[in-house]
Amino acid sequence: MTNFKRLTKSLNQMADGTYRILRSTLSAACTMMICALTLFLVSDGASVRGFEAYMIARELFSLSSATLLVGMIAALLVEDGAKKK
Fold first, then answer.
1. How many domains would you assign to the chain?
2. For the chain, what is the HEC assignment?
3. How many other C-beta atoms are found inside a 10 Å radius of the C-beta of residue 22?
4. CA dist 58 → 6, 20, 71 (Å)
5. 5 belongs to a structural domain
6. How far apart are CA 15 and CA 75, in angstroms?
7. Is the residue at 54 inside a domain?
8. Is residue 75 part of a domain?
9. pTM reported for the whole predicted model
10. Degrees, nearest 5: CA angle 52-56-62
11. How far apart are CA 23 and CA 27, in angstroms?
């Protein structure tokens, strides 16, 4: 429970821009994951007809991780800039 308390305390002390970046990045990544899951379920990867949808789903799945990474780096930069002021 102490880790959760520390996490909430650090979230409350964040700059407003940092919180918005984290929230929007997380929602974009979740949306990409939901779309990827839907495409994985709809496409038939073994057939030629569903191969394109399968590849799009695979790229969406990979892109969601990259989006989270870039969002975290941007949030760290904004937070660091806010603390220096």
1. 1
2. CHHHHHHHHHHHCCCHHHHHHHHHHHHHHHHHHHHHHHHHHHCCCCCCCCHHHHHHHHHHHHHHHHHHHHHHHHHHHHHHHHHHC
3. 19
4. 35, 27, 20
5. no
6. 9
7. yes
8. yes
9. 0.75
10. 145
11. 6
Nearest CA among 83, 67, 74, 69 for reference residue 19: 74
Please write the tens of the pLDDT for every residue from 24-67: 999 999 999 999 999 888 887 667 777 888 888 899 999 999 99
pLDDT digits (tens, 9 = 90+) for 72-82: 899 888 888 87
- Whether 51 and 59 have beta carbons less than 8 Å apart is answered as no
Assess if residue 4 is contained within a domain.
no
- Domain of 75 in residue numbering reads as 16-84
Angle, helix 51-84 to helix 16-42, in steps of 10 degrees: 170
Amino acid letter for position 29: A
Cα–Cα distance, 59 to 29 (Å, whole number): 12
